[in-house]
Design brief:
With about 210 residues, the protein is α+β, with helices and mostly antiparallel strands. It folds into two domains: about 5-85, no CATH class; about 90-210, TBP-like (2-Layer Sandwich). It is about 45% helix and about 25% strand. The protein has five helices and six strands. Strands 1-2-6-5-4-3 form a six-stranded antiparallel beta sheet. α1 packs antiparallel against α2 (about 40-55). The mean pLDDT is about 75.
């Protein structure tokens, strides 16, 4: 093979590798890696693009089938790597919240979602707020055993309330904050929101962690 042909093949191969990696990064950014069955979808999506590019670049040249096979395997490996480093998305994060055992008289008060699967600013995070009659310490004592069985332990206990966390392990960090409920109808610029007597607010937060 002449030097010009070697250079042509090398240039095309390098271009294909770059394009495959760009596509793999795009797969990660749109959150495909955090969806159910992503271990199948991500590698197949990356492999399909890589194979199409290789077959187009090697058209009419010997070794086209070998290059296609190599590209498919390489692209699948890249796809698996991308999936392996993607944090759980909001769907999977919400499943952790569903497992938290709450008092029977707890009333749902709201949910807030933030973050994204590429963890710009923050990784996928969901906070759910509940209100229950009683004082924070009494509510915390009632929930303590159930939270302990779920792997959470006390991280803070003071006059403002009690907090639980499941620690630094796992793909999702789960925290439970128990504090006096405040008056949500108070103006936003009010420096000190009024407390609601005899009512406790439970905030359950699940935050995805980066795997890399």
């Amino acid at each position: 093979m002449r030097a010009s042909e070697v250079w042509s093949v090398t240039w095309r191969g390098a271009l294909i590798v770059v394009l495959v990696w760009i596509f793999a990064l795009g797969t990660f950014l749109v959150g495909l890696g955090s969806l159910p069955f992503a271990w199948v979808l991500a590698p197949l999506a990356v492999a399909a693009v890589a194979v199409a590019l290789v077959r187009a670049a090697w058209r009419g040249r010997p070794g086209r089938d070998v290059a296609t096979t190599v590209a498919a395997v390489l692209a699948a490996a890249v796809g698996l790597l991308v999936w392996g480093g993607s944090p759980p998305g909001h769907l999977l994060v919400s499943w952790h919240l569903d497992d938290v055992e709450l008092p029977a008289d707890a009333r749902f008060a709201g949910e807030h979602r933030s973050g994204n699967t590429w963890c710009f600013d923050t990784c996928p995070t969901i906070s759910r707020t509940y209100r229950v009659p009683g004082e924070p310490r009494a509510v915390a004592d009632d929930m303590h055993e159930a939270l302990r069985r779920a792997g959470l332990h006390v991280t803070r206990r003071d006059a403002s309330g009690v907090s639980f966390s499941d620690g630094p392990a796992g793909d999702v960090n789960l925290t439970v904050d128990i504090a006096p409920a405040t008056d949500r109808a108070a103006p936003e610029d009010h420096p000190d929101p009024e407390l609601v007597a005899g009512v406790t607010e439970i905030t359950v937060t699940a935050r995805a962690r980066q795997r890399w």
